[in-house]
Design goal:
The structure holds 2 protein chains of 2 kinds. Chain A contains 13 helices and 2 strands; from the N terminus they run H-E-E-H-H-H-H-H-H-H-H-H-H-H-H. Chain A is mostly helical. In chain A, helix 10 runs antiparallel to helix 13. Chain A is flat. Chain B is of the alpha/beta class. Chain B folds into 2 domains: 224 residues, 3-Layer(aba) Sandwich (D-Maltodextrin-Binding Protein, domain 2), CATH 3.40.190; 202 residues, D-Maltodextrin-Binding Protein, domain 2 (3-Layer(aba) Sandwich), CATH 3.40.190. Helices cover 50% and strands 13% of the residues of chain B. Chain B is built from 23 helices and 13 strands. In chain B, helix 1 runs antiparallel to helix 18, helix 3 packs antiparallel against helix 17 and helix 13 crosses helix 23. Classes of the chains: A mainly alpha, B alpha/beta. Chains A and B meet through helix 12 of A and helix 5, helix 6, helix 14 and helix 22 of B.
């Protein structure tokens, strides 16, 4: 922090600063500017000041989208974090054949979101779908569940599919983190007579604290802007049951040709993302970067 | 919006026609072209660029049209560039904004074209059409509405008509001794019988939302006539509260609550042909779809059509309704318009006049199973493969006092999107007809 800035240092950080300005700062400021325009992207724009902001907060649609986004965020964290943690720790073990398991767990991450969306929409199809046929042959339910077309179910189903896609990635983070934990800690625990649960909660979990934080920030900010899979699976429907903020932003700006309203939502998204990361880092002490291996 | 699948009906005919292309093309070229291009100067060839979105067999028809034109008009070089449907919409929007559009661009008329016209980007064709009555009278009158604003014409049709009609599975109807419904009450009655036998009465691709709109468009026209929606287009206050909307939406929910649509219709996709699959597999009895539904079934299950199992009829009448039962809805056509930034407007007009939907071009469209909106082609259509279907489509358009362009094309984009979302909620019983009208009124004002 107290580093003195001489010209060599300025030169070294110049590329990063330039990239940040061109690809993050400038577009963000432009979005703020656009948010004050009444503009369809074709004809000349008209400056309307805060009118777009007013209409976003007055209309129920944006608030509805905001609520759905919050739901996706919480659900994603609750579903993805425990599973990723367990899978990651399991894969970090030294027993045989785990690498083989690892390959299978890793597969969803290799597919594009569009391919995943199309495949799952086939599986969940209410008339020809695999899942309903399976359930029917097992005599579970009536085999007529409308997974993505039911307004009460669609968002949950979408969130679960997102989890299916991203759990491998987060498992990978936890696997890497768990492999870094020195064996000596576990050896000491064994000598002290700790069982599997004690070791997990007293050694593995605390040692993975920063991995957990990194992964959580990624889950939370990622679900804030999640778009492509939802676009393919439901296109925001049925009705507007899965129109999250990012979907609403896309529709306002590019389908409705209302760049101003879309930009308002973009600014809200950006600000929410920044606040979210700052809060997570603050409350978890990540920024202080304390060592977890003191005395080792 | 609408998906436009294309299928080659008879490739053999196309080959034969291409062989004769040169002769016919030359015959058509006499007249206006030489004089108009002469005015653009003696400095040599003027070149024009056309942006289009046709694919497959249709793309070949357009390419042939351009090639023939270049042969018969040595002083003009036309070049067609083809784009994917959805990226095209953004590409043309950006090109217009940057004042760097092609000379001729394709579109669907309606609200989107209007926004370009308002920005001063589109050339007014009215005086050119007036100067040549034979050109102006080439087209069926009902398809010119989407490119006509305040009495001025900004485009000419360039491909085929796509009215919305009711397809049905003849086998299933025979099996339960039912006749295709002529009136709304017939429809409700058939729905009851099919439902009782475990067959989905009507197949609906509700995930894509635009199939919902077809019911709304037809019912509102049947009940209140074209004026009801024209009031909306004209921006009249509380136009969405017209009793016709309330009644149509009540009838839609009546249909939904009677179980008329298949299980899980809100996640069935028409873009992926799932609704058509229900029809030709006998899981559903009827499907309200644009005329491209025929091509979808033809490519997915040709034998279903060849065995004569596919029936088609007009949308049922509504007793006591004000609308003419011959009115239709759908996509009147795609249209070519000339951009105001074009440096070769005269050459572009010549192209529209001499190449687009000339005799040869019309023959080629028919040969791939399309129905161009051109006067006096009844006998040609009858002789073509699947002539009964093509003639049915043509007569629907020719006899229609009003051909309502799909509302989501006619309305400004944001209102169209709100309409589709609200309709989808109406079909899910998440919204009452009264709430629908109130919400749409509110969106029209803002």
């Amino acid at each position: 922090m107290g580093t003195k800035m001489n010209w060599q240092r300025w030169l070294m950080i110049a590329p990063a600063v330039v990239f940040f300005a061109v690809f993050a700062l400038f577009p963000m400021l432009m979005a703020v500017y656009y948010s004050g325009l009444q503009w369809n992207g074709i004809s000349s724009a008209k400056w309307v000041g805060l009118a777009n902001w007013g209409s976003v907060f007055r209309s129920g649609d944006a608030l509805h989208a905001l609520r759905l986004t919050a739901e996706v965020m919480v659900l994603s964290w609750v579903v993805q974090t425990p599973i990723s943690l367990l899978v990651g720790v399991f894969l970090a073990g030294r027993q045989r054949h785990r690498a083989v398991f690892g390959v299978f767990y890793f597969v969803p991450l290799l597919f594009s979101s569009v391919a995943i969306g199309v495949t799952w929409s086939y599986i969940l199809n209410p008339n020809f779908g695999l899942l309903d046929a399976l359930l029917k042959s097992l005599h579970i339910g009536n085999g007529n569940q409308n997974w993505l077309g039911n307004t009460h179910l669609a968002l949950l189903v979408v969130t679960l599919i997102i989890a299916w896609q991203f759990i491998p990635f987060h498992s990978l983070l936890y696997q890497g983190g768990a492999k870094q934990i020195p064996d000596s800690l576990y050896e000491a625990a064994t000598i002290d007579g700790a069982n599997v649960w004690n070791t997990f909660f007293s050694i593995t979990l605390p040692q993975l604290k920063y991995t957990l934080i990194t992964s959580s920030v990624l889950v939370l900010t990622g679900s804030l802007t999640y778009f492509d899979l939802i676009y393919v699976l439901t296109d925001g429907g049925p009705g507007d049951a899965t129109t999250v903020l990012a979907m609403d932003m896309y529709k306002q700006a590019f389908v409705n040709q209302n760049i101003g309203l879309g930009s308002v939502l973009a600014v809200i998204l950006a600000v929410a993302g920044v606040i979210l990361s700052i809060l997570t880092l603050r409350f978890t002490g990540f920024s202080r970067m304390e060592s977890q291996l003191e005395g080792m | 919006m609408l998906k436009r699948p294309k299928v080659v009906l008879s490739a053999g005919v196309t080959v034969a026609l291409t062989a004769s292309a040169l002769v016919t093309g030359c015959g058509n070229a006499s007249g206006g072209s030489n004089s108009s291009s002469g005015a653009s100067g003696t400095s040599g060839k003027s070149s024009i660029t056309i942006w289009d979105i046709q694919t497959g067999a249709s793309q070949k028809v357009v390419q042939d049209m351009s090639n023939d034109f270049n042969k018969s008009h040595p002083d003009i070089q036309s070049t067609v560039q083809f784009f994917e449907n959805d990226p095209y919409k953004q590409k043309i929007q950006i090109a217009m904004g940057a004042h760097n559009p092609p000379d001729i661009f394709t579109g669907w008329g309606g609200g989107v074209l209007k926004s370009y016209i308002d920005a001063g980007d589109v050339y007014d064709l009215t005086s050119d059409l007036k100067a040549d009555p034979s050109w102006a009278n080439r087209f069926l009158p009902s398809v010119m509405k989407p490119v006509t604003f305040d009495g001025k014409i900004y485009g000419v049709p360039n491909d085929n008509v796509q009215p919305v009609m009711m397809f049905y599975n003849k086998q299933v109807f025979q099996q339960y001794h039912l006749t295709p419904p002529k009136t709304w009450d017939d429809l409700l009655n058939d729905v009851k019988v099919f439902k009782a036998h475990g067959i989905a009465p009507i197949s609906l691709g509700g995930k894509d939302q635009w199939p919902d709109l077809m019911y709304e468009e037809y019912l509102v026209d049947r009940i209140g006539g074209p004026q009801v929606f024209n009031n909306v287009l004209a921006g009249k206050k509380n136009a969405w509260s017209d009793p016709a909307f309330l009644k149509a939406n009540t009838m839609i929910q009546q249909l939904v609550n009677a179980g008329a649509f298949e299980q899980g219709f809100s996640s069935v996709s028409s873009n992926q042909g799932e609704d058509a699959a229900l029809l030709y597999t006998g899981k559903a009895a009827m499907e309200l779809m644009g005329s491209w539904g025929f091509a979808t079934i033809l490519s997915d299950d040709k034998s279903f059509i060849d065995q004569g199992n596919l029936g088609f009829m007009t949308f049922p009448t509504v007793p006591g309704g004000k609308g003419n039962p011959n009115d239709i809805v759908g996509n009147p056509s795609n249209y070519y318009s000339i951009s105001n930034d074009s440096k070769n407007k005269k050459a572009a007009v010549t192209f529209l006049k001499d190449a687009v939907l000339n005799d040869q071009n019309v023959k080629e469209w028919i040969s791939i199973g399309d129905v161009p909106p051109v006067q006096g082609i009844e006998s040609e259509l009858k002789q073509a493969t699947y002539g009964d279907y093509l003639s049915f489509t043509y007569d629907m358009v020719k006899d229609a006092p009003n051909f309502q362009a799909s509302w989501d094309q006619a309305l400004p984009p944001s209102e169209a999107q709100e309409l589709l979302t609200d309709l989808s909620k109406l079909f899910l019983n998440q919204m009452t007809p009264q709430q629908f009208s109130d919400d749409m009124n509110q969106h029209m004002q803002s």
